[in-house]
Specification:
This protein is 35% helix and 26% strand. The protein has 8 helices and 10 strands. The strands form 3 sheets. Strands 6-7-8-5-9 form a 5-stranded antiparallel β-sheet. A 3-stranded antiparallel β-sheet has the order 1-2-3, with no helix packed on it. Strand 1 and strand 2 form a beta hairpin. Helix 2 runs antiparallel to helix 3. The longest helix has 22 residues.
């Protein structure tokens, strides 16, 4: 399931309702710490903060933290992110062999396909295309075939059409093709990942207090996992900051 206008609607809604200042389309290029944190933005501005949460990929965390501690940066860099490219292909619905009423397929390596999976977008999200069109989304790349995710658009399109013909018997030309590249995309935690993250967090407390880490590369990459981690962390950060803040009001 998703929102009618895509998950971007969720981001826009959060940015519109959360109190305080929300900066979108803004990158942090450097992180400094003395008694407070200073975040240097890509537009030249500097923000100060008592506490910071980095909710970014682990390789981006490593870049920001490298000047503070080489060991932490190296440990975070161990998390490998695999590339994935999605190819959305639209056909005239009348040209798609019937029946096609499933959400799609996940393709095991034993099938020796060059695709990771195929989603029936017009089945899962019928509002995404006109009624006379049928849209499939192919996933290419992953850990085993990372090279395919970087193919030029024309080669990638030809590859996907060959695979769709072999799997679904669709041998007509598409009415539209849209390619999106996620390079890198999905974190692939190694064996011992949780112990590694616990060690990073423990070391971080002594070097950069009041700085916390969360995100898909930490303790689960799904949206529910990210929400769970972030809610728990936000509550803990708030509790810690309130415990150290001066008592402003009393009854």
């Amino acid at each position: 399931a998703t929102l009618r206008g895509g998950l971007g609607e969720l981001v826009e809604a959060l940015a519109g309702r959360i109190e305080g200042e929300i900066l979108t389309g803004t990158a942090v290029t450097a992180l400094r710490y003395k008694q407070q944190y200073e975040l240097v933005l890509d537009d030249g501005r500097t923000l100060t903060a008592d506490a910071v949460i980095l909710a970014i990929p682990t390789y981006a965390m490593a870049d920001l933290l490298a000047e503070h501690d080489a060991q932490i940066a190296e440990q975070l860099s161990r998390v490998i992110y695999t590339p994935v490219t999605t190819v959305n292909v639209a056909f005239n619905r009348q040209d798609v062999p019937d029946p096609f009423d499933g959400f799609g397929v996940v393709i095991p390596e034993s099938e020796e396909s060059q695709l990771l999976a195929v989603e029936g977008m017009s089945v899962k999200f019928p509002h995404r295309a006109p009624d006379d069109q049928f849209v499939l989304r192919a996933f290419v790349g992953g850990q085993a075939r990372a090279d395919l995710a970087a193919l030029p658009d024309d080669e990638l399109t030809a590859l996907v059409l060959r695979e769709l013909a072999a799997i679904f018997g669709i041998e007509v030309m598409p009415t539209a093709v849209h390619i999106t590249r996620w390079l890198p995309a999905n974190p692939q935690p190694p064996v011992g990942h949780l112990a590694l993250i616990a060690e990073v967090e423990q070391r971080l407390q002594t070097i950069l207090p009041h700085l916390s880490l969360t995100g898909a590369g930490m303790r689960g990459q799904g949206i529910p996992d990210c929400i769970r981690q972030s809610q728990a962390l936000a509550g803990q950060v708030w509790k810690n900051e309130m415990a150290q803040a001066p008592l402003l009001y009393h009854e």
